[in-house]
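Researcher: Please predict.
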Amino acid sequence: MAKSMRYRKPKRTRHGVAFWDKEYTHAEHLALSEEASADLEKFVRFLVRETKLSLLNPTSSVIDCGCGNGRNLIMLAREFGMHGIGLDSSGAAIKEARRLSQEFQLTYYTQSIAEALPAADASQQLALDMMTSHFLSAAKRTALRDELYRILKPGGYVFMKTFLKDDDLHTEQLLKERPGPETGTYIHPVIGVPEYAYGEEELVDFLSEKFIIHKTYNSHKHKSKGKARKRRTISIYAQKDPIAVS
C-alpha cells in the first residue's frame, strides 16, 4: 500500500508593512541595529563643523521619516539633547522605538510618510529620509520633498540616503527582470513592493528645486571582478535657504 503524501503548507509571503512588522518582531532578512547609522554620524560631524551647535542642541527638533526603532533619533537626543518626531508605517517598529526612547523627548506616529507630516510649518531644524522615500511613487516623492521644505525652519537641513542606480549591477538587473509600475522602478524581490533608485544627477536636480545642496557621498566597492557586490547608495546634505520666507 502506497504511503500517503504529507501536505506541506506553503510558506506565507509578507509584503509591505506586514514584512516590516515581522522583521521588527522576529528578524529573518535584516540585521536590525540599535546603534545610529554611520552615515548619519558623518552628517552630524559635518553639521558641527559648519554650524557649531546652532542646530544640534536641546532647543532643536528633528523629524525622522521612516524611523524604524528610533535609533537615529535616540542618538541625537542622547548626544545633543534634541527632541523630535519619528514616523514609520510599521506598528511593531514604533512599539520598539517607544520602548527604547522612554528617557527622551521623542514622539512617534504609526503612519506612512506619503501622508501629511505631523509637524507645523517651519518647526524643525533637521529632517531625515534614510532609505525610506524610494518606496514611494514619483508623485508622492515630490509631495514628501515639499512637505520637508514646509516643516523645516530657514537654514534647516535634510539628510537623505537612498539607493544609487549609477553603475550598479543590482539595480540594472532588477529593472530588467522585475520591472515596476513606473519608469525606473522594480518590484523588490523580498518585500514585494515597488522601489525606485535615483541617478546622482537626477537626485541633485530634484532636491535643488527646493534646497541648497552642500554635499553628496556615494558608496563604493559595489563591483568585484565585474560582478555585483553590495548595492550602491548616495547620501546628500541639503539645506533650506536661510533667508527663505516660510
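Model: Confidence is low (pLDDT under 50) at residues 1-12.
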